[in-house]
Fold:
Amino acid sequence: MKILVINGPNINMLGIREPAIYGASTYADLVAMIKEYCASADIECELFQSNHEGDIVDKIQDAYGKFDGIVINPAAYTHTSVAILDALKSVAIPTVEVHISKVSERESFRQISYVSYYAVKTYQGLGFDGYIKAIEYLREHLS
Ligand code: CA2
Structure:
């Protein structure tokens, strides 16, 4: 199984500010955790982070025919991007949405998720563990 893990804007700033919401660990810690888990579970994974909506759309399009599943935390683009939703629909790769924080208990502008219209599952409020849950879900869903 080959999966692509996509993180959106400001995820590269994790651990620097707002530890009460996102924890004290960094994006480098997240990458290390996911790589370690995938190696132990015999899953091939690639990680991608971008602050640019179009680059995320390009990466999703490039995934067509190359990946079995996508794990995505679109970050702020969750709440705004029809383009990312359409890109996911266009490649039709099973996708799990992840949010580190419990977005359902946060500001009203975070209550819409466009990606949720396509994702087969969403994990929120589990910190970094949500990414592992998402990968495990994909493994079960794809087997
Ligand atoms: O909870 C999540 O995973 C989010 O996708 C994180 C996004 C936020 O816009 C979403 O509503 C929920 C934010 C990414 C990280 O932003 C930072 C903000 C301050 C300090 C460090 C990172």
